[in-house]
Amino acid sequence: MYPWHSRLVCALQLASSVLAASFAPRHDNSHPATHCKAVPGTAGWPSPRDWTALNESLAGRLLQPPPPGAVCHPGKKSYNAAECQAVRAAWSSYEFHANNPISVDWDQWANESCLPQEGAPCSGEGYPVFVINATEVRHVQLGVQFARKHNIRLVIKSSGHDFLGRSNAPNSLSIWTHNMKWIETHDSFRPSRCKVTIDHTAVTVGAGAHMWDIYSALDALNQTIVGGGGKTVSVGGYLTGAGHSLLSARYGLAADQVLEMEVVTPTGEIVTANECQNTDLFWAMRGGGGSTFGVITSVTMKTFPTPEIEHVLMGVVTLDVANTRAIFDMIAYVLSQFPSLGDQGLSGYAYFSPAIATSSPDGSNVTVAGLFMVGILQNSTPEAMRALWDPVFAHVNATWPGMFQALYQPRSYPSFLAYFAEIYDRSPAGRSQYVGSRLLDRAALTDDLAKSAAAWERFSNASVASAFLVSGKGVFDAKPRGCDGNAVLPAWRKAYVHATLGVVAPPLNPAGRAAARKQVQERVAALRELAPGMGAYMNEAAFDEPNYRHEFWGSNYERLLRIKRAIDPDDVLWCTPCVGNERWEQVGGRLCRVD
Ligand SMILES: Cc1cc2nc3c(=O)[nH]c(=O)nc-3n(C[C@H](O)[C@H](O)[C@H](O)COP(=O)(O)OP(=O)(O)OC[C@H]3O[C@@H](n4cnc5c(N)ncnc54)[C@H](O)[C@@H]3O)c2cc1C
Ligand SMILES: *[C@@H]1O[C@H](CO)[C@@H](O)[C@H](O)[C@H]1NC(C)=O
Ligand SMILES: *[C@@H]1O[C@H](CO)[C@@H](O)[C@H](O)[C@H]1NC(C)=O
Ligand SMILES: *[C@@H]1O[C@H](CO)[C@@H](O)[C@H](O)[C@H]1NC(C)=O
Ligand SMILES: *[C@@H]1O[C@H](CO)[C@@H](O)[C@H](O)[C@H]1NC(C)=O
Ligand SMILES: *[C@@H]1O[C@H](CO)[C@@H](O)[C@H](O)[C@H]1NC(C)=O
Ligand SMILES: *[C@@H]1O[C@H](CO)[C@@H](O)[C@H](O)[C@H]1NC(C)=O
Ligand SMILES: *[C@@H]1O[C@H](CO)[C@@H](O)[C@H](O)[C@H]1NC(C)=O
């Protein structure tokens, strides 16, 4: 109604927050803090009585779980041959790691310290020492206060999906938010202490709610959220990182939908962050990253009417796998169409490779090369979907006559949930996998196809890589609540494609892990050179991305760092690669100050 007025209010709010942050007391020297965080067996580590007292204050919710793989190790107290079989069978499932208080999806982040394999070492040294099975906000608060008081490394684990290892650490106290699963829907929502009511449907979920829980609850109301592609992804890590979705092209990123968060700050206060209070925190926690500025206990976000989904599984493939030049020229051409296909409403996940082992209808093994995509349109028709692809197929046939076959399997679904139930991410967990990624804008995809073909070939390195079309107009035009938007990496606002890869290292093989890391770096470098001004989506990027502060947060980094210093002067929360981690480093299993 009065745009000048709201703009003025915003300008004042921003100015005062910048001033407040720059006048924030400098705590750097106020705690002549010990050099390292306490670990078991050192004088600083809390006594058994301290732990018992913590457990009592938590009504007995403090756990000291054995490593999940210990059931497979005859020397261990929890050894159990039958359970070992079950754990081994479940090790590749996301549910297993999410439902276990300390297990994480990717073995290297627990230092492969107790794999469920006979003959493997089982020290459990990669895991937290104690865990709070939190079900209430108060449990989170008690955990944060205890870690702060006793100078213990603190980690937050929800699902344990993190590709960068941020939800686990050795010698730590972990707060496990998995059981904070409440879900409450709203026809409209008034953020606490705001005068405005936001005239939009919304949902408030506890920090442990999974995508599947939320999608299912909302489907009963014919609604959905901008959510992720894995059933067990939880809001804590997803939203704080940005959160891409098949619905993002229309509505924006998940972080753009947030209306309010309840947060336990690193000093142990329970606060509400929204556009009217704790606005710096509200800004930072939507894109600044997980386990850095506080612990989310619940979050309220917009919901949308569920779309009908028009789906296609399409492919452009060839048996002529030796002709890599033509294969990558074709791949670069199809990917160059993504900006225009995205502008027409398409989103989806594409996978490409110069060599995919598969079986032909007669059961024989064949190797094919090319690109596949699962793509969707919202509230559309099979004809509209086909019309998007016909010109692409025609161009491929005209350019490389007879070389490629088109594969095209359309299908319609009545709701997002009906669709999601079939296509959710089923890739296996339970291995040491290193990922890498890059965001690509229109220019990188379309300007110079000879150059992009060479980059895609290097990025693929003879194996499968992916290009997710999960951004577009909705992300570019998003209007997140609050004066100054949110802390999502600005490159997202012009990216069409989030290109990703994963390299699996052999177990218990340090040289193999080093080679996998190196391979990720070399492959990602191809796209960094193709799109030097962009960046990478922190939740699905290489943990050792060079210059990650710039690549994950861009021009937001300085402000994020000021907010981190103001809200967490003592570095109660610390992770890497995370905002404000400069003052500490990991030395073996310890976290110590940088001199
Ligand atoms: C199968 C699969 C599918 C995926 N699909 C998508 C997708 O479609 N789109 C997308 O954007 N990403 C996707 N991701 C990536 C996902 O966003 C990240 O793995 C994210 O870190 C998961 O968050 P989490 O809370 O479930 O995991 P966790 O590993 O438990 O936590 C991740 C990080 O967030 C912190 N954290 C967790 N809870 C809280 C909290 N309550 N408060 C503060 N910090 C917290 C943790 O400490 C850690 O730093 C997918 C991942 C997997 C494994
Ligand atoms: C915490 O207390 C409960 C209930 O008394 C007990 O079962 C549990 O073992 C205790 N936890 C620890 C780590 O001692
Ligand atoms: C954690 O708490 C929930 C809720 O009380 C309970 O059902 C579950 O068994 C607990 N988990 C563990 C591992 O103790
Ligand atoms: C959801 O949509 C179905 C089909 O259109 C309709 O029958 C049902 O009443 C709707 N439910 C709600 C809660 O709106
Ligand atoms: C196809 O490959 C699989 C896995 O490599 C192998 O087990 C199978 O025997 C092969 N089938 C044929 C028909 O060659
Ligand atoms: C090219 O045309 C042939 C013959 O019409 C067809 O079989 C093939 O699928 C087409 N390829 C593509 C990529 O459209
Ligand atoms: C794959 O990477 C290796 C190691 O960097 C490199 O030697 C090789 O040329 C690459 N292969 C392709 C097909 O790009
Ligand atoms: C991981 O394990 C190795 C021994 O297998 C050990 O040297 C190293 O310090 C451990 N790392 C951490 C972070 O605990």
Automatic annotation (TrEMBL):
Residues 1-20 form the signal peptide. GO terms for molecular function: FAD binding; oxidoreductase activity. Pfam families: BBE, FAD_binding_4. Its cofactor is FAD. Keywords: FAD, Flavoprotein, Oxidoreductase, Signal. Residues 124-306 form the FAD-binding PCMH-type domain. Belongs to the oxygen-dependent FAD-linked oxidoreductase family. This is FAD-binding PCMH-type domain-containing protein.
